[in-house]
Amino acid sequence: MLHRVPAERAGVLSGSLRGLTATEVAASRARFGSNDIIVAPPSGWRDVLRDTVRDPMIWFLAGTALLFAWLGDYIEAAILAVALAPIIGMDAYLHRRTQASTEGLAGRLAARARVLREGALVDIPSTEIVPGDIAIVTESQFFPADGVLIGGTANLQVDESALTGESLPVRKHPLELESASEHTQSIPQERAISNEHWGAAGTRLLTGEARLRVVFTGADTLYGEIVRSAQTGAHERTPLQRALTSLVTTLLVAAVVMCLVLAVTRYLQGHGVVDALLSAVTLAVAAIPEEFPVVFTFFLSIGIYRLARREALVRRAVVVENIGRVTCICSDKTGTSTEGRLQLTHVLPAPGVTEQKVLHTAAVASRTESADPMDLAVQERAPAAVEQRLATFPFTEDRRREVSIVREQQGGLVAAAKGAPETIIGMTAISQTERDAWLRKTTELAASGHKVIACARCDLESWEGGEPERNYVLLGLLAFEDPVRPTAAEAVKKAQAAGIRVIMVTGDHPATARAIARDAGIGADPPRVIDGSELAGEVSANSVDLNHVDVVARCTPAQKLQLVRALQASGEIVAVTGDGVNDVPALQGADIGIAMGERGTRSAREVASIVLLDDNFRTIIGAISEGRQLFENLKLSFAYLLTVHIPLVLTAAFIPLAGYPLLYLPAHVVWLELIIHPTALLVFPQMPSSDHLRAVARTGRIRFFDAVEWALICVIGIVVTAAIWIGYVRSLGPNQHVEHARSMALVALVVASATITLGLSGLRTRSAAVAVIASVASALVLVQIAPIAELLHLSPLHVDDWLLAIAAGVVPGALALLMTWRRRARVGSSSQRVVSSSRSAGHTA
Known about the structure:
The protein is an alpha+beta fold. It is built from 30 helices and 25 strands. The relative contact order is 0.09.
């Protein structure tokens, strides 16, 4: 990996080794700015308010609540006012989450730094560092900026996991001073610096002391780019929100036009100003579609609760809708598909060597205070019993081995070594044939998903210092694996059967990644594996066939983000898992960012939409399943609202337009809304979920209903409208018995509402049965009890009237049941088509 230093900055590499002067510091700061890697976003209630008022849903709910209050319907106004609270609270929460994300990112930056200026060490705030400064970084400190290592002690090792995701320490070497000064006599030109000479902000020095010539500061650092991605990532409105806004806007405009037309028509018909206003007000109460945003908000709350029960903590409410639309999951390996812990699974001793001796030697070579997962796995199996440890030569990327000099309990001196097989084998005197045989075993184990090390021992007659590098005796191989979770293969199979692609993105060796993907059932058999660098080149050239990529190995954070964007460009709805700061750009760029709750960093958790409390891939699939079920339930609720509101609005508008007496009075509409609201809010959100993962269309565009469903909704609405109209006109009769006609129309609508609820819900919940019984019971009470009916300008119905209302309600109920059956049949056929296509793709691959 090379870091490019542009010509305008290359000149800082040739500065004095005594550091910058005060004049040079001022000039550099004026040119490049201060080292503000983290710039806190605007905060305060004024900024929250500014962001909130941009949401049109807020304006709609507030305006509708005021309208109802002006009309005297304070119950509706109160309901809408309450609905404002969670939406405003959500905006404030998102604002706070951005601040918390920034705080988490700042946690890996040095607050202060020591720099050389005019030959003296100065302790300054890290924000005052400028390009050209020489920063002194000691063990366990974070680098304050990006730059070139120009000096320091030997054996420099850096933890770069925050930027690369690689858990192993990275060996660093200072750039030779003469190399840095070669370009001082000419005009500075662009230079490429190897990563082994580079220190980056946000990374931590593990061993030694380093001198860093600062090249990039602030937002120009690699860490600064990650921060910028986290702070400026757009949280665009989801397709469902846009579709809901469009639907509500259309219905609202239609309602306003119909109210005006009705008022003018009634006045021109000679019914007077009061009748005209009453007609318009009644139609407004019936037609303004305030239920839709209220139901949507309620569904989000239900979804958050349901996902939490599945160990998925929702950090952004609208993700409840988005999670069900996921078509592709880019998952890391460790902790999601695997258990996230190394296990020593194979011990292969050399001929004549016992397994215990191999394990004992590996334990002796390991440091007792080490937190390395491999050392811990060895020590768990064979705790080292050593009288005296004389010296330790730690593992580094260039040496790829660890050696300990110990005096055993019997008094003998021993050098115990463990490390990369090719390195350890090279320290022994075995024949070429034996060497090839051991390396073949190593390759076989690596291909099956194992991490492999070799162990060797050298008996010393004496030791005068230094690391022994020859005359070791090979004792054998140790193979470790991070076990695939028992539930991973089943979850992957379920996802692929539902049309969801699963792509493993990992920093591991391609052979190891392929083996784990095969065990987890990801992709074809064998899975197609590509290197991250290969992917980056192909995607940039638009020549990679992403449809057949199963595993991306040795993938860097930038390549992971590039993969996500390429998948999105091809029409996929992408979910990404991550646990480190290096995953922040991909988590932010994905449609659904999923962070690990057990081992994830705070920054990853704060920018993610969902946090997995158990770090389990099965939980992701469960969350998607829950999201798809919730969306189906939301569709049922909206279908119910439309099939009931269409006849309510049409009869409220066209019966008065036809010259008949007013059908509904405001009190009647309030009664109907007291039936419609609880049914929409309590029956359909509670529809039970299942472990079956529904298949959905692989499209980024989302619509509430398809053409057939819209047709059924319209037919149901027209049938109910006809039943109300006919019942009203029939009961009105030549004597203009308005109270009897209103009772007949209202009962017909209430019974139709009950049968539609039956058809859509199938009485699969107790709340559905309660809603049906309560709605019919309300009609019996309000219509059949004469004193109450008289107060409401109604009159009791006869038995034949009730029988006609029930008969009229059978047809819309049957059509609603047909919609439910069709939906279930489509789910089954879609799943079957997906399974068949998956099998075909597998055979083709």
